[in-house]
Amino acid sequence: MSADISPVIASTAHWLLRSYPVTGGALDTALAQAQAQQAATVAAWLRYPTAADAALVALVGPGGSARLDWLTGADASGPDAAGEPWRSWVDEVVASWAACLLTTPTLADRAVTALAGCEHASGVPIDFRRLTRPDEGDRRAASLLRHPDLLGPVADLHRATLVQLLQGEQSDADCA
Fold first, then answer.
1. Domain limits for position 126
2. Helix H or strand E encompassing 10
């Protein structure tokens, strides 16, 4: 994982898990965390394909979770909001793309394939099988996190851009 975008990946994965919580025990929590982390990593690597892109988002910040919180009905303005600075590192596009990847297996496969030439993936063994080939335990653990109806509003925010990127219609992306 690129150190420059690791806060974006971690915060976005955390937002996904807080918005679509695990209902099982410790093993289910770990399995769901792995899936959210993999989805956010793939989405972030596609969104910020070069070291320069990653450095830029680290400098200016990704925008935060406010719109996503509003969309999902989360109250992020309560008394705990000041104690949750991680929310400022959530990237709306990365969250939307991750939601697409979690709910649409064909997009997940195409996205992971598109990472083959990505700067972030060079020299790193890539294993996103919890995202692309979830077993029954993975599906059970992340039943809310992978539910297409629940994630639909978030996924639909930027699905068209992801589909264009993966179809090669966006020529300025170095990872696709």
1. 6-166
2. helix 6-19
- Rounded (5°) CA angle 33-47-119: 90
**Nearest-CA neighbor of 42 among 134, 110, 142?**
110
For residue 2, what pLDDT is reported? Answer: 44
pLDDT digits (tens, 9 = 90+) for 92-125: 999 999 999 999 999 999 999 999 878 887 777 7
Rounded Cα–Cα distance for residues 64 and 132 (Å) = 27
Q: Record the tokens describing residue 92, joined without a space.
A: 């709306």
51 contacts 175 by C-beta, under 8 angstroms: no
Number of structural domains in the chain: 1
| Residue type for position 69 | D
The first and second tokens of residue 173, run together, are 């992306």
Any domain includes 158: yes
Q: At what angle do helices 92-103 and 26-47 cross, to 10 degrees?
A: 120
